[in-house]
Amino acid sequence: MYIVFEGIDGAGKSTQIQLLKQWLEDNGFRVETLVEPTDSEVGKLIREILQRPDATTDTVQKTLALLFAADRMLIMDKLEDQSKIFISDRSFISSLAYQEPEEWVEVLNRYAKNPDLLILLDLDVKTSVSRTSGKDTFENEEFLTGIKDNYLRLAENFTCEIIDANNGVNKVSSDIKKAVAPYLGICPDCVL
Ligand code: TYD
Questions:
Q1: CB–CB of 64/46 below 8 Å?
Q2: Which atom belonging to ligand 1 lies closest to the Cα atom of 98?
Q3: Are the CB atoms for 166 and 127 separated by under 8 Å?
Q4: Which atom of ligand 1 is nearest to the CA of 92?
Q5: Which of 52, 94, 100 is the pocket-test mutation for ligand 1 (most atoms within 8 Å of CB)?
Q6: What is the atom index within ligand 1 of the atom nearest the CA of 135?
Q7: CA distance 94 to 184
Q8: What's domain 2-36+80-184's superfamily in CATH?
Q9: Relative to the CA of 138, which ligand 1 atom is closest?
């Protein structure tokens, strides 16, 4: 199973992925976590470019779209392993939400695997900005409002659970476990 976490910056994806991983392992599943951009050479290049002052220009965004697609192709074979649950921090759905035009981004990602389950951590934009404190170029209110809307629209195309990420860590974690449980044959009422 391939579970993907998406959401605007500061939504708590990495924390929640670790909590879900632990819980799934406690329930006897083998779990591997993934992060996009990855730690490949392409992923390193992406992280460098994201720090540049011109990272939001149209040309650099198009370059990033190509690099993000290449970086994720490098992990696609891994996902064929049926013995594990893969939980990924971001996927091609990030590219659809952040880069444009959408039709072109779709073509670039034609061979990217669709998630079996998308967990969308839905966070208020104001909270996102205060949590991330403008760490990188994408973290401003107007830009993130567009991304949040893109995510909510894109979610309709996937098997998706939308989780309110404005609550505390424990409440969000338990909401995620309850949402994931039925997909794995775990009784949702058994989740604390
Ligand atoms: P992020 O998960 O926020 O990394 P960190 O926790 O180190 O800040 O990812 C970095 C940025 O890359 C984030 O702002 C979203 C962006 N991104 C895209 O624009 N397109 C993509 O396809 C991916 C995977 C990420």
A1: yes
A2: 19
A3: yes
A4: 22
A5: 94
A6: 8
A7: 25
A8: P-loop containing nucleotide triphosphate hydrolases (3.40.50.300)
A9: 14
* pLDDT tens for the 192 residues of the chain, in order: 999 999 999 999 999 999 999 999 999 999 999 999 999 999 999 999 999 999 989 999 999 999 999 999 999 999 999 999 999 999 999 999 999 999 999 999 999 999 999 999 999 999 999 988 756 557 789 999 999 999 999 999 999 999 999 999 999 999 999 999 999 998 877 776
Strand-pair partners of 97: none
Give, as one character, the DSSP assignment of residue 114: P
pTM (2 decimals)?
Answer: 0.95
Distance CA 82, CA 1 (A): 7
Task: For ligand 1, say whether the CB of 95 is within 6 Å of any of its atoms.
Answer: yes
CA distance 65 to 37: 11
CB of 72 within 6 A of ligand 1: the answer is no
Other C-beta atoms lying within 10 Å of the C-beta of residue 65: 20
Tokens of 35: 């992060």
Domains of the chain, residue spans: 2-36+80-184
Q: Ligand 1 atom 22: the closest Cα is on which residue?
A: 95
Would the CB of 94 count as within 6 Å of ligand 1? yes
Distance 148 CA to ligand 1 centre (A): 14
